Every structure is written in structure tokens, then in C-alpha cells.
Amino acid sequence: MPKVLSDEQVRAFADNGFVSPVVAISLEEAADCRRQLEGYEAETGRSAVETIHIKGHLYFDWAWRLARHPRLIGAISDLVGPDLFIMASRFWIKDPQDRKFVSWHQDHAYFGLKPPTIITAWLALNEVTRHNGCMRAIPGSHRSGTHKHVETHDKDNLLSRGQALVDVDESTAVDLVLKPGEFSIHHGHLFHSSEPNTSDDRRIGFAMMFIPTHVESTIGRRAATLVSGEDRYGYWDHDPLPTRDRDPVIWELMHAADRHYRDNTHRQDAEATQLRAQIDKGLRELDAGLGEELDIESFIRRAREEEAREA
Ligand SMILES: O=C(O)CCC(=O)C(=O)O
């Protein structure tokens, strides 16, 4: 796999938790992807955001090509090595003058992965600026692990549960502006968000989420698609590969994966860690309690022995 990122960009990713911008495809290719996406919406009368879930990279031919594009795979490999799954993807679309926003959050909070290595490549299908609600990020925020999120369920929040970090200091936030065909790469712990679209065009991004093959799922067995190198671990099932553009098998897969992801029994990682600590504490207390019970038994035995002596 050819090297895509410079040493400086690799260092910047380690320091800041993101790299941006990186070129993937030409302006014309990006415009063609947009045309095909909007062609799907026009032909079916369905919005891409509402109907293409999690495995959209397998549903459209052009998206499947993007998910394996040597510039994307090369850049992600430069950061985490060449054995890679694409686990999920998502269209992030804001319509003209759209109030929709994305609260400050960390991707990793709900992904259930161990170790928490998930890297997102967010590719712009049209020009993305502050004016139309580009992504914003807080450099270095990825270094403090997973934080607890509150679930606001705000209808204008594009996140499925309106999950939000609290008390975020935005003073150092930077805008990730992109030209069509460019992408940003961000770490799963990076604090990031985006504001409403105040322009007269849509803002269209396609985010692809990659994990190295050694990463395990902590919320049951799931499937992903190998896009580079080898899977030497077997921690993931392998998604079926598309046999054609808009494959109905992939349609079913996308909707089943979406139901699994929205299942409210999946806890946030920060919450799950707290819960595990409480369970461990409970088990320790129980052990101590059992210890006392043994003491009571020996107390009774001693009392009986004493009774027998006195009789
Ligand atoms: O597109 C946006 O505004 C937010 C994207 C995002 O949160 C992500 O890709 O993780």
C-alpha cells in the first residue's frame, strides 16, 4: 500500500486527533458521486440520511469503490497499519438553510470496541465550509479517553440519540473545511461537532469508519468488511459482499445493522465501564460477606465445642 500521509501528518494525528484535508478523488469524481446519490433520492423518493444506514458503503457501487480507494486505505494504514475492516459508514447531509446540527461528541462512546481504535474518514461530496456547517474539532481532546454523554434526543440533532458531551471548552475548536473529493480523518475519542447549514446548497459528507482487525467487539458478535491486508484474529464475521449496485441483500443487511445499533440496551462505553466497576465492587463485597459467613460457622463450631466442654 503506497504511503499517503507525510510523517508530519502522522505526528499531527497523534498530537491533535485528526488530519485534514487529504485529497482522495478529483472534483469531477466527487460531483459524479453526488449525482449518483441524488439520483437514488430522486428515483426512489427516499432521503439517503433516513434510508441508507451503517453499511451504505456496500449498497452503492461508487461508495464501495470509495471504501477501498487506495488514497483512503493508504492514509488509514499509515496511522494504524494495513489490516483493516470497514465497520460502518454514514451519510451526513444538511439541506440548504437546515437547522440540523451535531452536538459535541466522541464517536467511540457507543461503538463497543476494545481497544477503542476507530478511525473515521469523512469525505466531502461538495464544498464544506463554516457557512454550511463543516465539522469542528478540538485539537488534543482525543487524549483523555471516553467521556460520559447525556442523551438529549433533540430532533434537530443528527446524532441518533442526540448524545452530547457536557461542559466542552470550545475556545480552541478548529473548522475542518474541505473541497469536494477531500477528506478529514479523525480519532474515535476526538471531541467534534457541527453547526447548522446557513447556505443555499446542501452539505454532503460520507463518513467511513475503519478498525484494525485486532479490535474486538464488546457488544456481541458483529460483522465488518475486510478492505485491506488480512484478518488473522477472527473476531468479526465478514459482511456479504455486494453482487451489484443497490443489491437487495445489502438493503436487508443495512436495516438489520441499524436496528442492532439503535438497540437501547447497548450502553455507552463510559457508562459500561462504570457499571463494570460497580459489579466488581459488589462481587468484592459479596466475597467479604462470604468470608464472614465462614467466620460465623467457625464461631458456632467453637461455641458448640465450649458447650460440650462445660456439660
Ligand atoms: O458531519 C457532521 O457534521 C458530523 C460528523 C461526525 O460526527 C462524524 O463523522 O463522526
What does this structure look like?
This protein has 311 residues and is α+β, with helices and mostly antiparallel strands. It has two domains: 260 residues, Jelly Rolls, CATH 2.60.120.620; 45 residues. Helix content is 36%, strand content 22%. It contains eight helices and 15 strands. The strands form four sheets. It has a seven-stranded mixed sheet. The longest helix is centred in the C-terminal third of the chain and has 42 residues. The radius of gyration is 24 Å and the shape is elongated. It starts with 6 loop residues before the first helix and ends with a helix. 37% of the residues are buried. About 2% of the residues have low confidence. Bound molecules: 2-oxoglutaric acid.
Fold blueprint:
Layout: H1 7-16, E1 18-23, H2 27-44, H3 48-51, H4 56-59, H5 61-67, H6 70-80, E2 84-94, E3 102-105, E4 113-114, E5 119-124, E6 135-137, E7 150-151, E8 163-164, E9 174-176, E10 182-187, E11 192-194, E12 203-212, E13 216-217, E14 223-228, E15 237-238, H7 248-262, H8 269-310
Parallel strand pairs: 14-15
Antiparallel strand pairs: 1-10, 2-12, 2-14, 3-11, 4-13, 5-10, 5-12, 6-9, 6-11, 7-8
